[in-house]
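Reposting from the mailing list since nobody answered there.

I have sequence plus structure tokens for a pair of proteins and want to know whether others read the tokens the same way I do. The first protein:
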Amino acid sequence: MYRITDDERPSRSAAGSSIAARRLDRRPTPLWTVLIPFFNERDYLAATIASVAAQDVPAIVILVDNGSTDGSADVARAAIRAHGIDALVVTETTPGKVAALRTGLGWVRTRYVATCDADTLYPPHYLREAERLLQRDGCVVAGAYFVDPGSGQDALDAEARRILAAARLLPRQCHAGGAGQCFDVAALRAVGGFDAAIWGYVLEDHEVIHRTMTQGRMLYSSDFWCMPSPRERDRVSIRWTAFERLVYSATAPWAGSWFFYRFLARRLNRRRLTSVRMRERAYQDIEGSAFASPHPVC
């Protein structure tokens, strides 16, 4: 098995790009790339990689080190060697999840891409179920629901009913966080992918779905789920205010662009909730009660 290493990074020169392309093409390309940005996740990254390595369909794994200082990149390399997976570790020094995702997407050569968090566990059928959804007519993005660590079947069933009901009621909204989203790559790139010039704030997982759904629909299923690693959260989840979530629900079917680029962007800018600044401080609840995004954003 040919294993991609972090030394094989994209070059600005045509020659460098050609060499990297030949290396990636030495064996048939899977349908899937798993994209994992990370920042100081050494305690959880190995378990995430192990869950990705256990997928029952083949995938290339791209890990983007967003400037970790705790040795996370070494943990990633060790896990790659331990599981014998095709993987690439790259570094993106611009802080922020959007920058890390943009760099990772630039390496993707497969039909589908799963954006995964470094502290989340994925069941072995995760990519296969996402592929089943994405192969349905008009589907360009699949969304997984989250369940608490150690959840049993009753909890899975209850959360599945909730997300499927929400998707039926509000089909033009995103009901899944970025750790549980899988895309048709052509559709994602057609709308600009991950780009701080388009959206440099938190809640990038919802905004990118807004753009992607101009290309088709988003689907969910009762068998498509993932599970955050058990941990003591030292950062609060990124928050919508109750008012913002209400406006999102009311306007997404007909004025989603207005909501994100005219309404929400201004409010997040005032609160300094940019992707770049999220690692610099802990953000507390602002403007009263709020709905949490399903997963912390680093």
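The second protein, same order (residues first, tokens after):
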Amino acid sequence: MSFLADLGRKLTSTIKNAVIQHHRRSGAVLFSDTTLRDGEQMPGATLEPADKLEIALALERAGVHSLDAGFPASSEQDVAAIQMMVGKVKKPVLTALCRTVKADVDAADFALRGQPPHKRGVSLFIGTSPLHREFKLQKSREEILKLIGETVSYAASKFEVVAFSPEDASRTEIEYLCECYRVAIDAGATTIGFPDTVGILTPQKAGHFLREIQDNVPNIERALLAVHFHNDLGLAVANTLAGIEAGAHVVQCTVNGIGERAGNASLEEVAMVLDLHFDQYGRRSKIDTTQLVPLCELVQRLTGIRPAPNKPVCGPTIFATEAGIHQDGLLKNPDTYLPFRPEKVGATGLQLVLGRHSGRRAVAHRLQELGLDSGEPAVISLLEQIKQLPKGVMLDDATVRELASRPRSGA
């Protein structure tokens, strides 16, 4: 029996290593979404288990590689949400967050029971910076290394997919950070994460950290490298892209960039940069960009967190313009004033908003759409009336019809 068990362990280890090497060789960027866990930490963004399942299925359609589904040891609601996903979310790997505590690993094992072994995993974390060691954990470097080795090994006995992230990595001494990674990989970690927990890095410093890690972790070839950036300085997307350039295999993001404080790297923004700039990054992902706007709208509806109107990729005004010159160009060819067309991200289309800055061509276009007189006198009359409207008046179709029906001066 022990011979068979040992053979099984060796076979599993061989398969895991083959999968890791496949991902490393492919050069693909794997998206790991944490909307359901880190994103939900944004005040007011609480999701019910059924909401999480709906978002998880939308993320699956969008092509994410893995889902940070929750923190089972923190609440029964997270356990319930994860159990609702088991067997229904089939393509992404479902992962659960754990502290370096064996009971947390047991809670994750319970929540993910029934999910195929290669489609379930855990992500362990522990603070490693001087601040976390001294004030939060009150543990020495050696004590933390021991905890990492013991709990990652314990997790690897229950899960094929085991990620380890040193919390507050960006404020941890680089030599100690590399030692933490070495211990974790030796204990069975298949992914090591680099989290900029308080969002303090610049792209240059992020790239430097990742190059140092790859140069100074001797067993790093046995694991994937993941990055997780917060947006406290507005640089989460830029730092994520720097991480990709530096060789990261996995990027962790949230839909609409939601998350605690200033949020996380925005999934839709990172995905579109990679799609539009293959010449620079030379790496593909499996994200279906046509699913991005529907996904963003779903997360907005279920969390109640509304992004800024001009939010890149999914904001309600990014395909809208009131400027007459731009409207004229867009009517002649949408590419004149767009980086990508609405259908590329699953949006409904251009919005030529009528207002004080609109020109004749846009007014004529709207009149034609409404089946109204679009001759030159009608266009000039409507344009004059629009320019006299008080600030804040919304020119919906009913208002346009009403203004167009008014008698023209001199008629």
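Reply #1 (J.P.):
I read it the same way you do. The first strand starts at residue 30 and ends at 33.
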